[in-house]
Specification:
single chain, alpha/beta, Rossmann fold, N-terminal domain of TfIIb, 2 domains, 7 helices, binds S-adenosylmethionine
Length: 250
């Protein structure tokens, strides 16, 4: 099992402070209203630091988040809500003995599953954990956009009262595997005493075409209900990095 997010977790919320979780949660709850109204329970795969989970609970859902990184879950557990809980587990092989109306997996979690076996196992697992007509909503990297835009080296700098984080992302493209390995070098500077340390992490990300997702869905007992750009709902194009798929258990 890869160890990514173990160290990364400490800076995760700072790095993504500009990510609009409220807007995203409104979008996801609109999809739930459209595709499975009256849903009450949500299984969140790769729940991270729990941002979507708590916002979904504020909308009246009961949410259970499954997350592999104990460090991310520890951060999530700093907030409490009686309708939200987290389990440290791998989405490829967990068993909760419980079923849900909806499964979500947000911010490219499924792209972290780079081999077919893990993907098939995960989708079968989601199937087992869904109620009748349950839906599975997830967003992934979209192959047409990856080929068109080609990932490049990028640097992101974020700062709060205590630390400055400089994250350099160096992507290595494995075209024959539909995988981009993003090598992160993260430097953390203490703004008070200027001491600094650097960590590195590899995040291998798989990208998908729609026929690939349709085949994966079909072979694991799902029907594809919707394919759209995450957040906007527009038809995916070569400019669409994150595509959202909505599947239904059949
Ligand atoms: C980009 S983060 C997204 C977190 C959260 N969904 C969000 O939107 O902020 C990806 C998350 O997926 C988790 N993850 C990746 N592979 C996983 C697996 N096989 N099982 C459980 N969690 C996994 C990582 O630990 C990380 O927290």
């Amino acid at each position: 099992m890869t160890d990514n997010f173990r160290l990364y977790s400490q800076y995760y919320d700072l790095l993504y402070q500009d990510k609009n979780y409220i807007l995203e949660t409104n979008y996801v709850s609109r999809l739930i209203e459209t595709y499975r109204p009256k849903s009450k329970t949500i299984l969140e795969l790769g729940a991270g630091t729990g941002k979507h989970a708590f916002l979904l609970a504020n909308k009246g859902y009961t949410v259970l988040g499954v997350e592999r990184s104990a460090e991310m879950v520890a951060i999530a557990n700093q907030t409490t809500n009686e309708n939200v809980s987290f389990d440290v587990a791998d989405i490829i092989e967990f068993n909760l003995n419980q079923t849900f109306d909806v499964a979500t997996s947000l911010f490219h979690v499924i792209s972290y599953l780079t081999d077919n076996e893990s993907l098939i196992q995960t989708f079968k697992n989601v199937y087992q954990h869904l109620n009748k007509d349950g839906i599975f909503i997830f967003d992934v990297w979209y192959s047409p956009a990856v080929y068109h835009q080609v990932p490049e080296k990028r640097t992101k700098i974020l700062k709060n009262h205590n630390i400055e984080v400089i994250r350099k992302a160096n992507p290595v493209i494995y075209s024959e595997k539909n995988v981009v390995e993003v090598n992160y070098e993260i430097t953390i500077i203490n703004v008070n005493d200027k001491s600094a340390s650097t960590i590195t992490e590899k995040h291998p990300m798989r990208h998908f075409s729609s026929p690939e997702i349709e085949l994966l869905a079909y072979t694991t007992g799902f029907k594809l209900l919707g394919t759209e750009e995450f957040l906007t709902g527009l038809a995916p194009s070569t400019d669409t990095w994150g595509v959202c798929y909505i599947l239904k258990k059949i």
